[in-house]
């Protein structure tokens, strides 16, 4: 019953046209009901349920991510990152997550979207940084060894992690090529009218399409739109994070640090 329901939902999302994707009531229903259901089924120990949950998330990412900035962040942190970073996660679950990430990392716009909308946003988590760190550990074989995986499984996991990292680098080169050719060109924030259907997730050892949708997630219209401004925004966020870390150890030192960086005033009202 649950598997059939998830399959029907996946069919709806994969066949959603422009009208449905822009329907306010449908988007609200996705936020209030579907995303909550995905957060629960995304930790299911049943492989079929987990696989369908990932497929649903990829469909949302391909067609509705412009509306789901907060929900996407939660799914990445609570499902993707949590499974990759937890030693008790099964090899099969981690393998399916890696396949999903392979699809995401294959698209230049999606990779840039993650960095711009989260790592450069003061109120969001550093998803791109955390993702690269996790993939680096997988490429080194540390994650698979924790699972007690078979040698061939460990090798496959390491190769897949390395492929994801290579895809990210290729995407960054591809995305930045136009910026070098046309330095005045603003950051591309387009959303195509008809993204391609997301293919189903292949299981371990199977072959499947890993092409990714090329839609843009721009959930925060106040974000800057040039590489230089992104760099400034990211640097400012790093300073804030360093100040918070110092504050957690010693509040007075943290306040002093932020004041020295001109991010916090000296009056009682500003400090409060």
Automatic annotation (TrEMBL):
Region spans: Disordered: 184-223
A Gene Ontology annotation in the biological process aspect, one of them, is:
regulation of ARF protein signal transduction
Entry-linked SUPFAM superfamilies? Sec7 domain (SSF48425)
Q: Which GO terms describe its molecular function?
A: guanyl-nucleotide exchange factor activity
Q: Name one Pfam family in it.
A: Sec7-like_HUS
| Top-level taxon | Eukaryota
Q: Which Gene3D superfamilies match?
A: 1.10.220.20
Sequence ranges of Low complexity compositional bias = 206-220
Mon2/Sec7/BIG1-like HUS domain residues are: 1-127
Please identify the protein, giving its name as recorded.
Answer: Mon2/Sec7/BIG1-like HUS domain-containing protein
Query: What organism is listed for this UniProt entry?
Result: Bracon brevicornis
């Amino acid at each position: 019953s649950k598997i059939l329901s998830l399959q029907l939902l996946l069919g709806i999302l994969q066949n959603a046209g422009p009208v449905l994707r822009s329907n306010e009531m449908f988007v609200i229903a996705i936020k209030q009901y579907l995303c909550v259901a995905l957060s629960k089924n995304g930790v299911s120990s049943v492989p079929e349920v987990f696989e369908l949950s990932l497929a649903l998330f990829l469909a949302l990412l391909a067609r509705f991510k412009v509306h789901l900035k907060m929900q996407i962040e939660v799914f990445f942190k609570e499902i993707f990152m949590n499974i990759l970073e937890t030693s008790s996660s099964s090899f099969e679950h981690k393998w399916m997550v890696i396949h999903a990430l392979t699809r995401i990392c294959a698209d230049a716009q999606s990779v840039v979207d993650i960095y711009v909308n989260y790592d450069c946003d003061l109120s969001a988590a550093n998803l791109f940084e955390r993702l690269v760190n996790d993939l680096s550990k997988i490429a080194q074989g540390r994650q698979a060894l924790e699972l007690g995986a078979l040698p061939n499984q460990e090798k496959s996991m390491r190769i897949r992690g390395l492929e994801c990292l290579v895809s990210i680098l290729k995407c960054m080169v591809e995305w930045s090529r136009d910026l070098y050719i046309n330095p005045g060109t603003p950051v591309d924030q387009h959303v195509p009218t008809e993204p391609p259907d997301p293919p189903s997730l292949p299981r371990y050892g199977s072959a499947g399409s890993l092409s990714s949708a090329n839609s843009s997630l721009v959930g925060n219209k106040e974000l800057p739109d040039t590489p230089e401004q992104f760099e400034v925004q990211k640097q400012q966020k790093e300073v804030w994070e360093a100040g918070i870390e110092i504050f957690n150890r010693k509040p007075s030192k943290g306040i002093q640090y932020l004041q020295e960086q001109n991010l916090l005033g000296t009056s009682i009202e500003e400090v409060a």
